[in-house]
Design a protein that fits this description.
Blueprint lengths: L2 E7 L12 H8 L3 E7 L12 E2 L9 E2 L1 H14 L6 E10 L2 H9 L2 E6 L7 H6 L3 E4 L9 H12 L11 H4 L17 E2 L2 E2 L9 H19 L1 H11 L1
Parallel strand pairs: 1-2, 1-6, 5-6, 5-7
Antiparallel strand pairs: 3-4, 8-9
The structure holds S-adenosylmethionine (SAM).
S-adenosylmethionine binds next to strand 5.
Organism: Methyloceanibacter stevinii
Family: Belongs to the RNA methyltransferase TrmD family.
Catalytic activity: guanosine(37) in tRNA + S-adenosyl-L-methionine = N(1)-methylguanosine(37) in tRNA + S-adenosyl-L-homocysteine + H(+)
Length: 234
């Protein structure tokens, strides 16, 4: 079955955007994955195709209406493979992780609801049991770029998209560590040499050096990951 992404958005023209290029674009053209961008405004009731209204209780900005978002979600669910999870991209969602991406990539696909304005009426999230997922601790102006991020992270894990799938096993997060540093020719550049061990041909030594580097980087830059990994091991 083809992995299918359905995006609910106010800007369908933003898709596939960068995902139409490079490896993801080639895979899309070859039918390795499918992308359906649905305009939420198609589910509006009035001639202005409005999808938002003022916040109950007052305050700044506008809120996306539950009835219109729900109609869009129901249509997306009906057209998606059975068991496709629905996600609302949201800065207050559960942080996206490589483990979460792997679960999504191994499933039938994903429905991604992109917010705009101040966000979505809470009732639709509760009534349709939609998971909220954040791509980081900052606020974007809309969920569309976040949807691209989720899809890109998933699509590169689909069979046949990345030439050497073995690279996934060594990438950052695969083992709970950040990845070791890479080097390539020239052997010396601006007075900086490639570490000798990488040119030694001794695969055991190279693996040990990479492991040390990955551990040191993780401890320094991501003490949260390091502690989590230590706890998981004990
Ligand atoms: N009022 C919201 C808040 O403070 O949490 C922010 C709304 S933001 C301007 C508009 C939309 O962008 C959100 O509904 C969400 O879909 C998307 N968005 C913004 N930041 C995001 C993030 N870090 N991760 C995922 N989606 C995000």
């Amino acid at each position: 079955m083809t992995w299918k992404a359905t995006v609910l958005t106010l800007f369908p023209e933003m898709f596939p955007g960068p995902l139409g290029l490079s490896l993801a674009g080639k895979a899309l053209a070859e039918g390795v994955w499918q992308l359906d961008a649905i305009d939420i405004r198609d589910f509006a009731h009035d001639k202005h195709r409005s999808v938002d209204d003022t916040p109950a209780g007052g305050g700044a900005g506008m809120v996306m209406r539950a009835d219109i978002a729900a109609a869009a979600i129901d249509a997306a669910k009906a057209a998606a493979p059975a068991g496709t999870p629905a996600i609302y991209l949201s800065p207050r969602g559960t942080p996206l992780t490589q483990a979460g991406v792997e679960v999504l990539a191994h499933g039938p696909g994903v429905i991604l609801l992109c917010g705009r304005f101040e966000g979505l009426d809470q009732r639709v999230l509760d009534a349709r049991e939609i998971e909220e997922v954040s791509i980081g601790d900052y606020v974007l102006s809309g969920g569309d770029l976040a949807a691209h991020v989720v899809m890109d992270a998933c699509v590169r894990l689909l069979p046949g998209v990345v030439g050497n799938a073995g690279t996934h096993d060594e990438e950052s997060f695969a083992s709970g560590l950040l990845e070791y540093p890479h080097y390539t020719r020239p052997r010396e550049w601006e007075g900086h040499a490639i570490p000798d061990v990488l040119l030694s041909g001794d695969h055991e030594k190279i693996a040990a050096w990479r492991r040390e580097q990955a551990e040191a980087l993780t401890k320094k830059r991501r003490p949260d990951l390091w502690d989590w990994r230590r706890k998981a091991k004990s």
